[in-house]
Amino acid sequence: MNLMKYLTPTEHKFLVKPCRDISFEFIQDGYQIIHKYSKGKLYEFEPKTICFDDLGTENNLKYYGNECNVMAEVLLSRYDIFTTKKIQTHVTTNLSASEIENVYGNRVRSRLREMINLIGFERNINDKRV
To answer: How many structural domains is the chain composed of?
Structure first.
């Protein structure tokens, strides 16, 4: 995906953001981070295409005692943007569909199925970046 962001036409450029970094930002700034990566300050006025890198490497985190699955909330918000404005979201992960459901729930898995085209790699390959 890092290569793709340089090969795409200007109007389709996107940001690649590691999911772990988003969760660390949540520890610092709280729930505004969910809005930042769905439809807030990151995009100034309008949401843009973004790639969430390595989905599943982050943990559920607490902000002032309130636990949150940050990426699940971000992905659900991105689904709303996809259905209303047709703005794309890219995701890279090493998780299978059933693992995604275990970590993020059936609702997120269902939304991802609708908004993402899957490019799969064989499980016996140790490094999927090849």
So the answer is: 1
